[in-house]
Amino acid sequence: MAIPTNIKTLLSGNVVEWARIEFKETWDPEASLKTVCAFANDLDNWGGGYIVVGAEEENGRPVYPLKGVPVEKIDAYQKNILEKSKFIRPAYSPIVEVVDYEDKKFIVLWCPGGDNRPYSSPKTMAKDSKERIHFIRKGSSTVIPTEDEEKDLFALANRVPFDDRINHQADISDLNITLIQNYLKEVNSSLYEQSQTGNFVEVCRDMNIISNLPEYIKPKNVGLMFFSMEPDKFFPYTQIDVVQFPDGLGGDSIIEKTFKGPIHQQLRDALQYIRNTVIVEKVVKHPDRAEADRFFNYPFAAIEESLSNAVYHRAYDEREPIEVRVENDRIEILSFPGPDRSVTMEELKSYRVSNRRYRNRRIGDFLKELHLTEGRNTGFKKILDSLEANGSPKPEFETDEAHSYFITRLFVHEGFWNTKHEDENMSTPNSTLSTPNSTPNSTPNSTPNSTPSHTLLEDLRGLSLREQILVLIKKNPSISKKKMTEILGVSMYALKKELAAMSEEHVAEFVGFSRSGKWIVH
User: Fold this and answer.
1) Does position 421 have pLDDT exceeding 70, yes or no?
2) DSSP labels for 393-458?
3) E strands within 212-360?
4) Is the pTM of this model over 0.70?
5) 20: helix, coil or strand?
6) Which of 373, 384, 381, 379 has its CA nearest to residue 16?
7) Residue 295 has what pLDDT?
8) Least confident of 165-169, 180-184, 214-218, 244-248
9) If DSSP states are collapsed to H, E and C, what string results for 162-199?
10) For position 375, what pLDDT does the model report?
11) How far apart are the C-alpha atoms of 203 and 26, rounded to whole Å?
12) Rounded CA separation 64/18 (Å)
């Protein structure tokens, strides 16, 4: 069997985090079996991990030059791995592959998170040892869990992450061999050659995108998300909506574009569309020096990381798309639900987030292999660094107490605050706009070229969502929900949620039929 990545990638640590890789100079049954057990338990839903036999380890990194495994020991090691894996309960077997690298041989064990956790293995390999431990990974170490950690592990027993579950409504024919081959070729996996000549089911099984039962072959959700031509057939609203408001919120012009298909492809297509239609570079020349200032309205790297994080962390069992709202002074990326409960409001405000448990353990691995997202807990830093390098304002990250949604808010560079009337010089995407040095006269949280203070938008400024809704329905009792979302700049989900609460609390409600009814404020 073959692993879904390659040993060069594992040795680099650029795709799979070091904490998920353990290097062993030789096969050590007792120590290695504990690590296999810990990866199978996958307490934090990281996706399991890898053991590379044939590479000495120092401080969690491989030691060069690499030693490799002597050819005469390969068969004995493989047989011992198979034999010792039987000591894990319930039954669990890692995927093992012998690989060649730099004229040496290595044995790689891929240990994905198991479906039947918690798993246990013997505390020692002594014949009279009967004590079994539910080993877990903590950082880059395999350890015995504390009492609370063991309780967490048992609580996860029947909670396989959604992306790693078997989809009983789909069939293996829903997986597209061409999409699979393109992926394997791009990540330089040894499975690519096998996919061209070997058994399709075996390739899918080696990639862990189908069930393991030979008599019941069904795709896993992650397989359908990446390798089905129409994943939205199985997961409605698996799409990215990019909505632009050229005339500002409440304006007459709205440009909408929807991206569907395999989730990595829709991510790439949406990012390319944003790069072509939204991103603009500006050059500011100075009379007292030869060098001009160059900056973008938004650094592409910040948008790329923010949207990739939304694709990674959204819930695919919720019927809500990812929405990218492009306004005059900001870009908002909205996804559902919000972050894990371990992430606090204070952490979001201080940009110091450490997400302990991940919603989609398999999606992250595929996206990282394709270099579409960074390592764990590194996304915020990349966003902040790219904004700072561009001279852009700091971002905002927002959720509610129920963690029901998540918004990443990126503000336009201050050099673009006064460029609404310069659109004739920006007729093509990615064009270079040369303007004299100007003094900004607004803030990141204000709307450029806003209308006078007595306008509706001014009336809404600074109010809570409920207060804004009340202003709108008092001014226009027949206003539609769609019109409210356009004016307020919120999703239909957020609006309906607030309206439902207002109705339940007898604050306001809609009376009558949709076309002839009206809003009543109590």
Assistant:
1) no
2) PP-EEE--TT---EEEEEEPPGGGTT-GGGGGG--STT-EEEEE-----S-TTS-TTPPPTTSHHH
3) 240-244, 255-259, 281-285, 293-296, 322-326, 330-335
4) no
5) helix
6) 373
7) 93
8) 214-218
9) HHHCECCCCCHHHCCHHHHHHHHHHCCCCHHHHHHHCC
10) 56
11) 28
12) 16
